[in-house]
Specification:
single chain; 216 residues; alpha/beta; Rossmann fold; six-stranded mixed beta sheet; two-stranded antiparallel ribbon; 7 helices; 39% helix; globular
Length: 216
C-alpha cells in the first residue's frame, strides 16, 4: 500500500528522471527468476543523487514515525536496501542491522549483521518488491532471531499479484513510497510512454511469469 499519493507520484517522476527505470520490450531484461521483463527498476541509482536520496530517506522516516512509533531497530535487506536503511536509521537515531539472503559460509556465519535485535521492535527496509520472497526471507531470519517485526517499508513495488498474496499469507504490513500503477500512470500522462506501451506494460504486470515480447 502506498503511504501518500503525492509522494508516490514524486518518486515515480524522479525514478524516470534519473533513468532508474529502463524500458526495452524488444530485448526484454531477464530476471534471476527467469522471468522476462520489458521494464527494469534499479533503485540503487537513487544513492548517487543527493536530493532524491534525501527525499526517499525523509519519506521512509515519516512512514515509520507515523505508522510504527514504537520502532527500536531498522533492518535493511542486503544488498540493495543497506544504504537506505542506514540513512533512515541515522535520521531516526536508531540502531541498524542488515540481513543477508543466507548465513555466511565462513567466519561467524552470521545472517544478521550488527547487534541482533532480540525482543526488539524492528522495521524492515527494502528498496524494491517483486515477488516478495527475498524480503520475506529476511523477515523470517529476524523472527527466528526473536526480533519483533512490525512491518516493512519499501521504495517501490511492482505490485504483482503474487507479492500481495505472499505478504497476506505472512500477515505482514507493507508500505511503499511508490508503486507500479502510479509509475505507469505518470509515465503515460507525461508522454514518457505511448498508449500501446502502456497496454503492454500493464499486460506484463498482470502475468509476468508467462509474458513474452509477442504476447501483448
Amino acid at each position: 500500500m502506498i503511504f501518500d499519493k503525492k509522494t508516490a507520484e514524486q518518486i515515480a517522476q524522479e525514478l524516470l528522471a534519473i533513468k532508474a527505470i529502463q524500458l526495452n520490450a524488444e530485448k526484454p531484461f531477464q530476471w534471476a527468476s527467469g522471468w522476462k521483463s520489458p521494464i527494469y527498476c534499479d533503485n540503487r541509482l537513487i544513492l548517487s543523487f543527493p536530493s532524491m536520496r534525501q527525499l526517499v530517506c525523509q519519506a521512509m522516516a515519516d512512514v515509520i514515525k507515523i505508522k510504527y512509533p514504537k520502532t527500536e531497530y531498522v533492518a535493511g535487506v542486503a544488498t540493495g536496501a543497506i544504504g537506505f536503511a542506514t540513512m533512515v536509521a541515522e535520521s531516526l537515531g536508531l540502531p541498524m542491522v542488515y540481513v543477508r539472503p543466507e548465513p555466511k559460509k565462513h567466519g561467524r556465519q552470521n545472517q544478521i549483521e550488527g547487534v541482533t535485535p532480540v525482543h526488539k521492535n524492528v522495521i524492515v527496509v527494502e528498496d524494491l518488491i517483486s515477488s516478495g520472497s527475498s524480503s520475506l526471507n529476511a523477515v523470517k531470519a529476524l523472527k527466528e532471531a526473536e526480533a519483533n517485526v512490525l512491518g516493512m517499508v519499501a521504495v517501490f513495488t511492482y505490485n504483482f499479484p503474487i507479492a500481495r498474496a505472499n505478504f497476506e499469507k505472512h500477515q505482514l504490513d507493507l508500505w511503499t513510497l511508490s508503486d507500479y500503477p502510479t509509475l505507469i500512470a505518470f509515465a503515460k500522462k507525461s508522454n514518457y510512454i505511448t498508449s500501446q506501451q502502456e497496454e503492454m506494460l500493464l499486460t506484463w504486470n498482470n502475468a509476468p511469469n508467462t509474458w513474452t515480447p509477442h504476447s501483448n
